[in-house]
């Protein structure tokens, strides 16, 4: 098991590490029933429109036979979805009316290469709006001794809805990869943890923000005693420092202490403590840090040597095996390698790296531009100019072009 604790403050995060994992999902034979057209109740208009952006968030309402009700979804497809034939992993966000936009903003920001050099994979983000969160996210009925949750105890049925209806519908309508992350807070953080120990095939990664592990006398604690993961799984638990002493904090720490003692193969756990916030104010930071933690291996760390294309292939083959789907190396990894080779005088190798990157992704304007720069520096002006023009064309055809890039690309053309 891999158990990591980290503490977040304004400029500081501590990470301590230890090892755990997951199991790949299995498509149910009931999928034919789940894809019945009656399950699609309606589609609605764009809910989060940004001027000039082709991939705006939208809603989809589906009819659940399992839950006997309609469920509203918030959906964001990745930038460039319509221009590529790539399959994308799913990020399922519970408490969708509260957390979808928060998760979506972080996912889009950190997966956009011209902003952050693409620090995490592009994903299809799906938020599920609540109808009765007390019912859906709690595994057992409430005892009623202290606080009353009269509709509680429906987590198994909600989990069945995810497995037998929601995910098959998403798989049929969109280009999904066999990798799924689930994120939730408080009761939905409890459910995210419960999903991992109850249906280990269904999800690969789990972001459990201030989870209500205390439910039913730490029911999750007992289930962790018997869970077995056949494939890598990653859990991130977050807590606000101001939650110290409360039910959420003490039950979560008790669970993490037990996980530290009990080594569970194929399970990785990271704990992030967020300074100066409580149960609600820490959610935005938790979503940010939690997603970064889960997908931090998307970019090779500084202690991993990437000296050639073979190193890149080997690294991402390993990540693909761990995450359960083919992870495509981001352009920034090739660009970084190319400039390192160029700086070391290995100019032909640098050019070949960028040619390889463009062959994998013809729509990455920086790769096109940098190849143009290198070719022009080698006095190959005609081919260099061609790549400058290609870079400019790709950038101009984006929904929201990067103004800095446009100026740089045009300046390159003018110079030649």
Describe the structure.
- About 45% of the residues lie in helices and about 20% in strands.
- It has helices at about 30-35, 95-110, 115, 135, 155-175, 185-200, 215-225, 245-260, 285-295, 310-325, 330-345, 345-360, 365-375, 380-395, 405-415, and strands spanning about 1-10, 10-15, 40-50, 55-65, 70-75, 90-95, 125-130, 175-185, 205-210, 235-240, 265-275.
- It has an eleven-stranded mixed beta sheet, with helices on both faces.
- It is elongated.
- It starts with a strand and ends with a helix.
- Residues about 5-55 have low confidence and may be disordered.
TL;DR of this structure?
It contains 15 helices and eleven strands.
Key words describing this protein structure:
416 residues; alpha/beta; single chain; 11-stranded mixed sheet
């Amino acid at each position: 098991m891999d158990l990591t604790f980290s503490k977040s403050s304004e400029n500081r995060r501590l990470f301590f590490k230890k090892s755990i994992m997951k199991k790949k999902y299995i498509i149910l034979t009931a999928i034919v029933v789940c894809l019945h057209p009656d399950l699609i109740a309606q589609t609605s208009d764009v809910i989060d429109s940004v001027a000039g952006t082709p991939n705006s968030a939208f809603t989809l309402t589906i009819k659940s036979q399992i839950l006997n009700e309609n469920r509203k979804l918030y959906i964001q497809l990745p930038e460039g979805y319509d221009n590529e034939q790539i399959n994308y992993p799913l990020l399922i966000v519970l408490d969708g009316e509260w957390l979808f936009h928060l998760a979506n903003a972080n996912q889009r920001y950190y997966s956009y290469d011209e902003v952050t050099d693409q620090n995490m994979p592009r994903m299809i983000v799906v938020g599920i709006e609540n109808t009765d969160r007390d019912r859906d996210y709690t595994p057992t009925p409430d005892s009623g001794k202290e606080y009353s949750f009269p509709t509680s105890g429906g987590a198994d049925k909600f989990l069945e809805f995810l497995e037998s209806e929601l995910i098959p519908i998403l798989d049929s309508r969109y280009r999904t990869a066999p990798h799924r992350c689930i994120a939730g807070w408080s009761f939905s953080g409890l459910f995210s943890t419960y999903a991992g120990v109850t249906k280990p095939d269904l999800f690969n990664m789990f972001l459990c923000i201030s989870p209500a592990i205390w439910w039913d006398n730490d029911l999750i604690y007992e289930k962790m005693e018997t869970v077995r993961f056949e494939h890598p799984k990653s859990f991130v638990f977050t807590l606000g420092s101001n939650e110290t002493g409360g039910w959420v904090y003490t039950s979560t720490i008790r669970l993490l202490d037990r996980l530290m003692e009990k080594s569970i193969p194929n399970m990785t756990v990271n704990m992030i403590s967020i300074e100066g916030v409580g149960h609600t104010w820490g959610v935005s930071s938790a979503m940010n840090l939690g997603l970064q933690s889960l997908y931090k291996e998307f970019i090779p760390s500084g202690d991993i040597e990437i000296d050639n294309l073979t190193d890149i292939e080997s690294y991402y083959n390993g990540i693909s095996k761990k995450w359960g789907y083919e992870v495509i190396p981001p352009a920034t990894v090739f660009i970084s390698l190319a400039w390192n080779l160029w700086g070391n005088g290995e100019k032909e190798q640098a050019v070949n790296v960028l040619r390889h990157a463009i062959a994998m992704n013809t729509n990455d304007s920086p790769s096109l531009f940098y190849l143009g720069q290198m070719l022009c520096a080698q006095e190959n002006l005609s081919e260099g100019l061609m790549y400058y023009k290609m870079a400019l064309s790709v950038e101009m055809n984006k929904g929201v072009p990067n103004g800095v890039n446009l100026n740089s690309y045009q300046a390159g053309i003018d110079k030649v």
